């Protein structure tokens, strides 16, 4: 997406993700302050093609990709991934039974 | 005093495990937190913060306790950005802790513990061995749409890496793959030798995800973005998706997982290998 690569949009994207993760108090978080600092520091540069600026830009794009894709992955996981087996207690509870308990524990348990 | 407990784990298909119950010692409490993978770990901390320890290494604190790696070592990272990113990962967990979303933490743990005791040389030779079966070098003969797509998308990357590193890597459509000359391997070996152990851990991770050394190097040299590298790695799948349609619970799931892991690996390598200084220039008018 060519329109994504301007630093302002990347910065906004990262901050939006942080807000999604952390809720309303995201402005006090470490990541927020660090990101804003980094964007401010790298904004002004003398040369026309500044390698450090390009590197920082690429790193910020990478971090944005990381945040968005973990969020999407988690959403798809919650939507589609198998929830695992039920425990024996729950299975018994499905038909209205309860597992027997042995007061002394079974032979191999302590 | 240790108590010996024999637990029959029915979920593991009748495997009997010997498990010692340690006393509630701080050191081991956090080490055990990774071991119960099947049980759900609830979030047991409120705040996540970072602090600078001895030697300039940064540590992550959950509430008051220091974070430890699965083998019990103290979790330290060389720079602040990585520590903040790991802290954000831990902070992002709500209710229960999902380790499969915490890619940076996993990578740091692997680099710190090195559980399989790999040395730099082993990692470099493994990466070079992967070059022989690199995704980009394997072309198909048919269908023609896919041949065309591979030529248009993969060839520029091949040319870029050949000119950047002054090597020859061909592409082939035979089952044996391309012949990689020794000079190429030597050049790459030298280049990878300049990476630190942490960077090599990250690189290995990225190569395993993208199934290509060339794409990994292209991404780490900032020639390709993460999304583009993932797209190129999954080129055939994308072609089939365009033809047959997208299945969200398989294709999208895979793509986002791949992107997340690749982005984590790339960020890990970048942060492990760079050090930034700010030079303030005076404005002269």
Could you give a short description of this structure?
The complex is a heterodimer of chains A (110) and B (285). Chain A has 110 residues and is mainly alpha-helical. Helices cover 59% and strands 0% of the residues of chain A.
The N- and C-terminal alpha carbons of chain B lie at a distance of 75 Å
Low-confidence stretches of chain B: 2-32
Shape of chain B: globular
CA gyration radius of chain B, whole angstroms: 23 Å
Helicity range of the residues of chain B?
40-55%
User: Quick check: average pLDDT of chain B?
Assistant: 81
| CATH-derived topology of the largest domain in chain B | ATP12-like fold
Query: What is the count of DSSP helices of chain A, taking H or I runs of 4+ residues?
Result: 4
Descriptive keywords:
heterodimer; A: 110 residues; mainly alpha; 4 helices; 0% strand; B: 285 residues; alpha+beta; ATP12-like; ATP12-like fold; four-stranded antiparallel sheet; two-stranded antiparallel sheet; 11 helices; disordered N terminus
Topology:
The complex is a heterodimer of chains A (110) and B (285).
Chain A: H1 7-22, H2 30-41, H3 51-80, H4 88-94
Helix pairs in contact in A: 1-2, 1-3
Chain B: E1 3-9, E2 15-21, H1 26-32, E3 48-52, E4 58-62, E5 65-66, E6 76-77, H2 80-91, H3 103-113, H4 120-131, H5 144-165, H6 182-193, H7 197-210, H8 213-220, H9 226-233, H10 235-244, H11 248-273
Antiparallel strand pairs in B: 1-2, 3-4, 4-5, 4-6
Helix pairs in contact in B: 3-7, 3-11, 4-6, 4-7, 5-8, 7-8, 7-11, 8-9
């Amino acid at each position: 997406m060519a329109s994504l690569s301007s630093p302002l949009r990347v910065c906004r994207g990262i901050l939006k993700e942080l807000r999604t993760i952390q809720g309303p108090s995201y402005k006090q978080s470490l990541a927020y302050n660090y990101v804003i600092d980094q964007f401010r520091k790298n904004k002004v540069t003398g040369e026309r093609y500044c390698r450090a600026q390009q590197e920082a830009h690429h790193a910020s794009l990478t971090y944005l990709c990381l945040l968005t894709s973990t969020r999407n992955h988690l959403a798809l996981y919650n939507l589609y991934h198998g929830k695992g087996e039920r425990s024996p207690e729950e299975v018994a509870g499905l038909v209205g039974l309860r597992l027997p308990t042995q007061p002394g524990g079974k032979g191999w348990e302590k | 005093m240790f108590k010996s407990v024999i637990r029959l784990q029915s979920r593991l298909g009748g495997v009997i495990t010997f498990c010692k119950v340690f006393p509630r010692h701080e050191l081991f409490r956090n080490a055990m937190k990774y071991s119960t993978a099947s049980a759900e770990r609830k979030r047991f901390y409120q705040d996540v913060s970072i602090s600078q320890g001895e030697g300039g290494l940064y540590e992550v604190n959950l509430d008051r306790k220091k974070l430890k790696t699965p083998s019990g070592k103290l979790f330290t990272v060389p720079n602040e950005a990585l520590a903040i990113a790991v802290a954000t990962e831990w902070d992002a967990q709500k209710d229960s802790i999902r380790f499969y979303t915490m890619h940076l933490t996993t990578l740091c743990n692997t680099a710190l513990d090195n559980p399989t005791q790999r040395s730099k040389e082993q990692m470099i030779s493994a990466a070079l061995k992967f070059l022989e079966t690199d995704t980009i070098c394997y072309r198909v003969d048919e269908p023609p749409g896919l041949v065309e797509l591979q030529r248009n998308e993969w060839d520029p990357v091949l040319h870029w890496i050949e000119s950047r590193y002054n090597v020859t890597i061909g592409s082939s459509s035979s089952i044996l793959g391309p012949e990689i000359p020794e000079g190429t391997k030597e050049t790459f070996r030298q280049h990878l030798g300049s990476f630190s152990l942490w960077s090599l851990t990250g690189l290995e991770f990225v190569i395993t995800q993208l199934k290509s050394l060339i794409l990994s190097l292209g991404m780490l040299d900032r020639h390709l973005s993460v999304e583009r590298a993932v797209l190129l790695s999954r080129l055939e799948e994308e072609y089939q998706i365009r033809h047959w349609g997208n299945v969200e619970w398989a294709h999208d799931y895979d793509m986002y997982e791949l992107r997340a892991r690749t982005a984590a690996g790339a960020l890990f390598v970048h942060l492990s290998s760079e050090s930034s200084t700010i030079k303030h220039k005076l404005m002269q008018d």
